[in-house]
Amino acid sequence: METITVKFGGSSLADAAQFRKVAEIITADPRRAFVVVSAPGRRFADDTKVTDLLYQAFEHAGTPAFAGTWAQIAERFETIVRELDLNVDLGLDDVKAEIEAGANQDYCASRGEYLNAKIMAALLDRPFIDAADCVFFRADGSFDAARTDETLGAALADKTGAVVPGFYGANPDGSVRTFSRGGSDITGAIVARASGSSCYENWTDVSGILAADPRIVADALPIREITYRELREMAYMGASVLHEDAIYPARTAGIPIRIRNTNAPGDPGTVISREASGEHLLPVTGIAGKKDFSIIHIEKDQMNETPGFVSKVIEPFAARGISIEHLPTGIDSMCVVVPTAQIRDSRTELLCDIRDAVSPDVILVENDMALVAVVGRGMVRRKGVAARLFGALAQAGVNVRMIDQGSGELNIIVGVDTADYETAIRALYGAFFA
Fold it and tell me: What is the DSSP letter of 326?
């Protein structure tokens, strides 16, 4: 029988009631064999996530404040176990002793996932597999995919089901190392690949990926189908539901990802795959954006006839470790779009280096720019998309400062004034989805 890997986020596992809801979802489909869990999230608006409490415990270790912080952490887990009427020893005293003895920050931060997985394994009566025994990092901190696939695959091969904590693994010396925040999404994809699952279900508190930021477009529609490439584009431009590094393990294995809502399990959610069906295909799949960029304008006569001109411009950015977001060019001009924060402390020196490298006729910097991307596989060879885009922005009174289209015709990116950012998002949503 084919298997499904399921991952549940912190909001899905914030208290005992949520645990029961999750258990019902898992047992409703016998294919949901392998379970990855996050640490308990907020129970209400002013609540504190357990991971944040664990970071505080690390900071407070060895001080009088530690006792109060640890009491809050222990109370969260003890309450869940008690209300679920489980007979399970979580080893809270051992965790406390490790933190007090000076355990590293990653160990402390990871204990929320570790303890939640212990609870879930007891609730489902499934084996617990510690991620530190099967998920590996190299000495330089990079993820060791080959070793992880081999070890984790072997650990899961003889099991009809198991629970694995998300977010962390182990360094070569056995010490705990975490992924970046939200890394349980990555663990879920890793488990799906290692187990040979037919699908990776990522359960959260929204009914799929939305076509625009709901903080800007309150009634944004969910996206039913999206390709890995489209999702990468949207995640890169600021859309958030799934940790973007979680896409890669599933994509390489050809495993579809499905975003589902724990609190509305009947909703279809969003399916992410290599090739979407195209049914009811709109020209645009979604709209996303980011703020706080600067444009460095460079002009020089006959620039296009100067071999190596662009590479000479790029070198000073690379030397300072500055990421270039976009590089639109003309015959005698080019723009380098970078995050403002990355040039704030070295702007004068950077411009001097560019002048020395290419002797531009004009070089100037403009700040307060936002980037807005219209993403969609349906844009390829579809007539009128650009006209509708620019018409909507013009009608909304938004000035376009930069235009860039990817070579794969998967997106069109426009630069607008930061003050016009939300207006641009709403105008584009209205043009393609209303």
Answer: B
Burial class (CB in 10 A: 0-12, 13-18, 19+), 312: middle
Across 33-42, 167-176, 384-393, least confident range: 384-393
Rounded to an integer, what distance in angstroms lies between the CA atom of residue 330 and that of residue 99? Answer: 57
Element (H, E) at 172: none
Sheet-wide strand order for 257-261: 162-165, 32-37, 4-8, 199-204, 257-261, 270-273, 225-227
Q: Say yes or no to pLDDT of 229 above 60.
A: yes
Q: Between vectors from CA 204 to CA 152 and to CA 12, what angle results, nearest 5°?
A: 85
Read off the tokens for 255.
Answer: 């495993």
- 165, 117 Cβ separation under 8 angstroms: yes
Q: What percent of the chain has pLDDT over 70?
A: 97
Tokens in use for 364? 């100037």
For residues 232 and 239, the answer to whether their CB atoms sit within 8 Å is no
Among candidates 332, 413, 336, which has minimal Cα distance to 375? 413
Cβ neighbours around 102 below 10 Å, total = 10
Residue 227: which of 193, 251, 201 has the closest Cα? 251
CA distance 79 to 16: 8
The CA distance from 223 to 210, in Å, is 6
215 burial type by CB count under 10 A (0-12 exposed, 13-18 middle, 19+ buried)? exposed
pLDDT in tens, 41-89: 999 999 999 999 999 999 999 999 999 999 999 999 999 999 999 999 9
Are 111 and 57 contacting, i.e. CB atoms less than 8 angstroms apart?
A: no
Per-residue pLDDT of 364-381, as tens digits, reads: 999 999 999 999 987 876
